[in-house]
Amino acid sequence: MSKPTIALVAHDHKKPDLLAWANANMQRLEQCRLVGTGTTGGLIAEQTGLTVQRFKSGPLGGDQQIGALIAEGELDALFFFWDPLNPAPHDPDVKALLRLCSVWNVPVACNRSTADLLITSPLFLSLDYQREVPNY
């Protein structure tokens, strides 16, 4: 089985939180194929040394590119540190991305506590666990 693919995304005010979390979880993240939106993916790659496939910036279509991975069954988890206190101009894209996670039963963490629980779960990198994918 190939490495799980996870997406790393953060709004501007949450980028420091995601970077701190990524640094604290490098050992597990190294075992994954990482994708991310443009700025976030670049910061993570620069500051951790992890390899991150970068898509466009979120407001320029990066959220939708990650959504396409979900729709194609190619994303295993989304770590999206979003900022509920600062409205984003691409809020409809953000909502669509989170909606796709629910539609396709993709695990999503929107804050550090949930991200910690998800990445430290014994099921996270387990070859025995298969997420149930709805058959629409």
TrEMBL record:
Residues involved in substrate binding: 11, 15, 37-40, 57-58, 90
Gene3D superfamilies on file: Methylglyoxal synthase-like domain (3.40.50.1380)
EC number(s) on file: 4.2.3.3
Domain MGS-like, first and last residues per copy: 1-136
SMART domains associated with the record: MGS (SM00851)
Catalyzed reactions: dihydroxyacetone phosphate = methylglyoxal + phosphate
Keywords per UniProt: Lyase
An annotated Gene Ontology molecular function: methylglyoxal synthase activity
Keyword Lyase: yes
Active-site residues from the entry: 63
Family of the protein in this entry: Belongs to the methylglyoxal synthase family.
UniProt function note: Catalyzes the formation of methylglyoxal from dihydroxyacetone phosphate.
NCBIfam families tied to this protein: MGSA, PRK05234.1
Protein name as annotated: Methylglyoxal synthase
Organism name: Alteromonas arenosi
Lineage: Bacteria, Pseudomonadati, Pseudomonadota, Gammaproteobacteria, Alteromonadales
Gene: mgsA
